[in-house]
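2024-03-11 09:14:02 DEBUG pipeline.ingest accepted 1 chain
2024-03-11 09:14:02 DEBUG pipeline.ingest length=537
2024-03-11 09:14:03 DEBUG pipeline.predict start
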Amino acid sequence: MTDTGSLNLAWSQAMIAGFVSAGITDAVISPGSRSTPLALALLRQPGLRSHVAIDERSAAFFGLGIAKAQRRPVLLLATSGTAPANWLPAIVEASQAGVPLIAVSADRPPELHGCGANQTVPQAAMFAPYVRASHALATPDEGFDPGYLHRLAAQVADQATWPHPGPVHINQPFREPLLPAGDSPPAARLEPVRCHHPVAEPDHRTLSDLANRLSGRPGVMVCGEMPIAATRNSALVGLASALACPILAEPLSGLRFGPHDRSHLCVGYNRWLDTSGAAAIPPPEWIIRFGAFPVTRNLQNYLSGSAATQIVVDPWPRWSDPARKLTDLLHADPESFCNALLRQRLKPANDGWLGQFLALERQAAERNTPNHIPAIVNALPAGTALFVGNSLAIRELDSLSGHSDKTLHIHANRGASGIDGNLSTAAGIASAHGRTVALVGDLTCQHDIGGLAQTRGLDIAIVVVNNGGGGIFDHLPQRSLPEFSRGWRTPQHVDFEHAARAFGLTYHAVGTADDLAIRLSGAVESGGPQLIELKLA
């Protein structure tokens, strides 16, 4: 008869081997007792990188960053009680942003629930509104079939990936003893389960109808945040060229930086959409939107105030229409949609339509003033990953990044747009991608100060813009309140130099955009974890 500890480990080994067989390469472990069988299986599993993070909230965002960079699921493991509850913010973000995560919480056995047992809370439905699926498993049973766990792991990996990437939760109870009395046999080797997903594309009748409605008419393409895809940009700009229309492209669209044709790109729209020059352009007759809804207010208002046909192309089963202006929803892969539409007979808009937008772009570029955003973008070598924080940082990047033929991989947590976990997410990206720069505000850095612990050994430079608190509120109506400074601006007095040194980061302080560019170039070249504080307050 197998002892309980050996049964727990054999069960865990079968499950983890199944995840590796399904293509998972990374796991983030937060130490605990009840999760011991799974932790041991993770640490002993060949072909799996196990990262250890003490703080479960930071661990979950770190895993989120890895998954963002890799576009495949990452395993999270925590013990029972409040430990998995700390995952909630990252699971919400992963759900909203379409990032694949697999959260495995260890639990007490059924007989210890509802009787006041220590460190025991209801966990099985803890993340119910935010997960693609939830699996409440039984305790390991003697004589179990390893093939069951192997295929369960494949099923979970598939649920986290398709049709709408996001988090999946497994709750796994264990009885004590948690460790085997002696050596345990290795996990059984089983053939991988191969999952094949279709690429969604509109039917011929829909494409023909769209071609008739778009051809020869003035229109606009709007591109928000999309997962990075190497060949999609050429398809998007190819469609814009065929229709002779502008592309209003956000930084997170992936269109602003790279060797593709950028002659139709508009990236300065935040500085001209509300001007008399923009008002003089006749309204478009159609708008095609790809990716997430826009970040900034001017572009949001442009969509909300338009009476044009508004077409949303989205591969995921969701309804993305905050402006309530949608007329056509096509659940299709953007690249496949563009290529299929290009096979129709398309006619360009009248001469001068595109030129009006590009003229406003040139005027906005001529009015550029010194700022830290161009300094950062210009200092980054090709191939760098740039993580940008929420609130003011993402909006300034949207307005001032420009565009170039240099390839940059830009990320942000725009699913729920929180300032929590930003440093941890950036560290996860650096772990998966390599050279990474994070741009965050002072409050965002303070909120996730423990995330600095995850930067050890990574090539990551964190730029903290210290503008004396919540600078985003200077642009919002709250600024007129007498309680503004105390309740919203909230200036802090954190010594970021001491924080950096406490976690082993090299620290630099700069006061101008030019000094920041010099210091950032040096930090990227020298490598290792570094924190650069830009003091504007």
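2024-03-11 09:14:41 DEBUG pipeline.report The longest strand covers residues 101-107.
2024-03-11 09:14:41 DEBUG pipeline.predict end
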